[in-house]
Amino acid sequence: MDLKDKVCVVTGAAQGLGRSFVEILLKNGSKVALIDVNKSLGNELKSTLDQEYGRDRTEFYLADVTSEEDFKGVLEKIVKTFGRIDILCNNAGIINEKHWEKTIAINLGGVVRGTYLALEHMKKENGGNGGVIVNVSSMAGLGPLPMAPIYTATKHGVVGFSRAMAAVSKLANYGVRINILCPWFVKTSLLSSMSSEEHIGSFFPLKGIAETMMQNRGCLEADVVAKAFLVLVKDESKNGDVLMIDPDEAVFVSFPERAKDFSTTPVSLE
Ligand SMILES: NC(=O)c1ccc[n+]([C@@H]2O[C@H](COP(=O)([O-])OP(=O)(O)OC[C@H]3O[C@@H](n4cnc5c(N)ncnc54)[C@H](O)[C@@H]3O)[C@@H](O)[C@H]2O)c1
Ligand SMILES: CCCCC/C=C\C=C\[C@H](O)C/C=C\C/C=C\CCCC(=O)O
After folding, report:
1. How far is the CA of 94 from the centre of ligand 2 (A)?
2. Which CATH number is associated with domain 7-249?
3. Active-site annotation holds for 116
4. C-alpha to C-alpha distances, 259 to 65, 217, 255, 263, nearest whole angstrom
5. Which among 104, 146, 201, 205 counts the fewest CB atoms within 10 Å?
6. Which residues have a Cβ under 8 Å from the Cβ of 37 and sit 6 or more positions away?
């Protein structure tokens, strides 16, 4: 997929991984609509990007991915301004085990909402041009992060939802590929947010587990994850694919075609 002049939307774009995705898309010639709840960081980033890439290449939109009204409204504004949507990255996410309903609403609800709303603009049967959606999960979408069961649940949810939607898109000929990114720990503000007791809830004593995991295996830089993101965007053979990135390598995860084909152990029900 050639990214020149493509219209991209990134949620949680004001910092961290979202910012890296915005920058790699701009470097490849795309226009990018940045969505975030953090107004000051969003405006600050927009000014920085204006200087490097020119004012017409980006727009910042203040919106909360948990609000149907906000999200629907900004996608309509984006289509009015840029003419269409070719690429969406549902990246906005938090880790907050104490306020777990909020974590589910942003990490899973925001991904579901973004995917459904953007498909209305992107799918070919509605006059869209097709394109690609990348949903940001985590390695916690594939295995448990012990001190964060809710975060783990949301990220597993993102994997399951996105794989199912990729199958729907293929069967219904939407012309939209839907892929999933599963990074290991990345150096962003998300990691420091977990240090606050407010975010950890009753799992505070287990905080050391994540620190040990990072001491043992390291921590990714956001620009490395952005390169993996670009693979999922550009490779037109990828739909419903899960790309896992850890400090040693980036690998596509193989799932059996059917649940019945998982490696299994028979159980006697006698
Ligand atoms: N940092 C890691 O170790 C890591 C690893 C794997 C996956 N991830 C995932 O990557 C994504 C980005 O995380 P990050 O590490 O860059 O975090 P970050 O905290 O640096 O950035 C997240 C951004 O999302 C925005 N945001 C939060 N709630 C929002 C909402 N309701 N609506 C709109 N925007 C909202 C924040 O304002 C912030 O700018 C998340 O989904 C996270 O779960 C992070
Ligand atoms: C100092 C506190 C750090 C708290 C970490 C906070 C958030 C991190 C979120 C990342 O998405 C986690 C990424 C990778 C680790 C997740 C699961 C491990 C799976 C282990 C395995 O099965 O190999």
Report:
1. 12
2. 3.40.50.720
3. no
4. 32, 31, 9, 9
5. 205
6. 62, 63, 64, 92
Q: How far is the CA of 136 from the centre of ligand 1 (A)?
A: 9
ipTM reported for the complex, 2 dp: 0.98
Q: Find tokens 């990348």 and name the residue.
A: 134
At residue 179's C-alpha, the angle toward residues 178 and 180, to 5°, is: 140
Lining ligand 1 with CB less than 6 A are 11-12, 14-18, 36-38, 64-66, 91-94, 106, 136, 138, 183, 185-186, 188-191
What are the tens digits of pLDDT across the range 31-50? 999 999 999 999 999 999 99
| Nearest CA residue ID for atom 14, ligand 2 | 184
C-alpha–C-alpha distance, residues 146 and 3, integer Å: 38
pLDDT digits (tens, 9 = 90+) for 114-159: 999 999 999 999 999 999 999 999 999 999 998 899 999 999 999 9
Q: Is 219 in the pocket of ligand 2 (CB under 6 A)?
A: no
pTM of the model: 0.97
